[in-house]
Design goal:
The protein is built from 8 helices and 6 strands. The protein is α/β, with parallel strands linked by helices. The chain is globular. The N terminus is likely disordered.
């Protein structure tokens, strides 16, 4: 069975006064657009399996969809986008697949950095960079330096990232800096995370049909809204973006409090 071309999220029904996009989903008002969206880009392998292809071909198709997804989120007013590309647990995958992923990341940087720079995108990286080979680390550093002054949108790539590893690294740095235990606060710990210069995500989207968080931004997502899409990442398109944003716009975010109507 081919993967669905759009998620199974039900679009809202109370935005009839707003314009309807060409894909049939109501345009979300600018005030309801999340500032920071994070995406667990899942389903590449299953996308490839349905087509009789190797997993690396699915990952390649997924990376070829990244620029279009970035542009779709940017056009709708999202200011920060974090993409979960490779986890600390993904090293457990078959060695040929891991090697292929590293080659794909390298070629994606070569192909995409300049167009993203010209589009005003600032690139960031979170994860354990020291586990990657020297040439790849240099490419990532160069991309960050090239785009550091851009301000249209920040795109943060999580590669060799795991939230538990991030928390361990944060605690280790705090200990190394001699932070007094009495001075440890939520704000202090946040200052030691990989994401210390980024806002917490408002919306986390997982593609591919699974409904789990997979060790992604566990601290930062304490009050994030989640949307789970059935669409495999290589097929994730503007309609899926609009449906996810429309679903987010329907949520009431209370951050542990009680809404004004008391319900």
């Amino acid at each position: 069975m081919p993967s669905p071309s759009a998620s199974t999220i039900t679009p809202p029904t109370n935005h009839a006064a707003l314009p309807v996009r060409a894909n049939g989903v109501h345009r979300v008002d600018a005030a309801e657009i999340p500032h920071h969206v994070a995406v667990i880009m899942d389903g590449n392998g299953r996308w490839a399996a349905q087509r009789g292809l190797r997993p690396t071909e699915g990952h390649r198709a997924g990376t070829e969809n990244i620029r279009a997804a970035i542009e779709a989120f940017a056009e709708r007013g999202v200011r920060c986008l974090t993409l979960f590309a490779f986890s600390t647990e993904n090293w457990k995958r078959p060695r040929p697949e891991v090697r292929g992923l590293m080659r794909i990341l390298s070629s994606t940087i070569d192909r995409e950095v300049q167009p993203l720079h010209e589009a005003g995108v600032r690139l960031r990286y979170i994860g354990r960079l020291d586990a990657l080979d020297t040439r790849l680390r240099r490419k990532i550093d160069d991309a960050i330096k090239l785009t550091r002054d851009n301000d249209r949108m920040t795109v943060c790539v999580a590669f060799n990232y795991g939230s538990r590893a991030e928390l361990v690294d944060a605690v280790r740095r705090m200990v190394a800096d001699g932070v007094n235990p009495d001075d440890v606060t939520e704000h202090k710990l946040s200052d030691y995370l990989y994401t210390r210069e980024l806002p917490d995500p408002d919306l986390i989207i997982r593609t591919g049909g699974d409904q789990r968080v997979s060790n992604f931004l566990l601290w930062q997502a304490a009050y994030a809204e989640y949307v789970f899409s059935d669409t495999y990442w290589p097929d994730f398109c503007e309609q899926d973006v609009d449906q996810a944003l429309a679903a987010y716009a329907q949520r009431t975010r209370n951050f542990g409090g009680r809404p004004a109507n008391g319900q």
